[in-house]
Amino acid sequence: MSNLGEFLKIISEGKKDYSANDPKGKVIAEVKEHVKSDLSELFSQLATIQKKVEVLPEETEGKEEAQKILAEVILEPIKEQETVDLTDVNKYLTGKSFQQPNPEAPSRDVEDIRNKIKYLEQWLGKIAAHGPGSGEVRLEFLDDVNRNSAKQDGKYLKYDAASKKWIGDTIETGDVVYNTTLVETSTYTVQDGDWYIGVNYAGAVTITMPSSATAGRVVVIKDESGNASTNPITVSGTIDNDSGGFILQLDNGGVQMVYRSGWRII
Fold first, then answer.
1. How many alpha carbons lie under 13 Å from residue 148 in its C-beta half-sphere?
2. Would you say the C-alpha torsion 158, 161, 166, 167 has a positive or negative sign?
3. Strand locations in 67-195, DSSP E?
4. Does residue 87 lie in a domain region?
5. How many angstroms separate the CA atoms of 225 and 251, rounded?
6. Which of 214, 266, 259 is nearest to 237 (CA)?
7. Which of 63, 104, 228, 262 has CB atoms 3.0–4.6 Å from 223's, for a disulfide?
8. How far apart are CA 265 and CA 6, in angstroms?
9. Is residue 19, in this structure, part of any structural domain at all?
């Protein structure tokens, strides 16, 4: 009965886990495909033999011998295989290691299904437009941005270490601003970000001030050439209620102004 033992050993091997590239696993998988049909045929033949033996008359010679052979040669070796229960062959052909996990049943709610489809459509659209891994395309929806504070007019983003997020903030009166500008041309118009304006030009220069500004804004104009007496700096605009502005002609001189209902020299 060595062949039967080998056969049962192959069935037992089917219970083990093998990787997809394991040669032994591939062979076992091929054998398993034929085991069901082979076993079905085997037990069918055994059942036929047993029925034929049972219907033999009592006086028939050979009945007792046939039953003995059936028990000793075929049935007993099978019973001795303690690790294999042939009454449930499918357990060994579709054991735990070969079964697919049962997926969670999908929701039957139509609205849930619509929302999931819409979500998938949106992400597929992003991937199609920007490629996989592009992520969010709007700053306000990034995980490290505080949307409520950032999405407001006139705010700028600054990092808040406490919350580990970028938040919206404003420049308040008294905040230090270090924007500096060098003027090396004959004309210049003051920009929103200017604070200190240094003039270094070999000739007369005209600086035009904005007609209005945020209350408390400070602008400093400085002669960096050291030749303002020869190359005067004309500041154009309404300064201290004078629409004609003023002229800076002091070498290395400077003027500081603040806006409050107009530009004021301080």
1. 0
2. negative
3. 156-160, 165-169, 180-183, 187-189
4. yes
5. 8
6. 259
7. 228
8. 106
9. yes
The answer to whether residues 252 and 228 touch, using CB atoms and an 8 Å cutoff, is: yes
Angle subtended at Cα 74 by Cα 73 and Cα 75, rounded to the nearest 5 degrees: 115
Residue 133 domain flag: no
Question: Can you read off the two tokens belonging to residue 264?
Answer: 């004021």
pLDDT in tens, 125-162: 776 666 655 566 777 778 888 888 878 887 888 888 88
Tokens of 234: 């004309």
Over residues 153-207, the pLDDT tens digits come to 878 888 888 888 888 888 765 566 778 999 999 999 999 889 999 999 999 999 9
Task: Residue count of the chain, please give it.
Answer: 266
By residue range, what is the domain housing residue 153?
139-169
Q: Is 178 left (phi over 0), alpha (psi -120 to 50) or beta?
A: alpha
The pTM (predicted TM-score) of the whole model is: 0.40
Among 214, 213, 256, CA closest to 235: 256
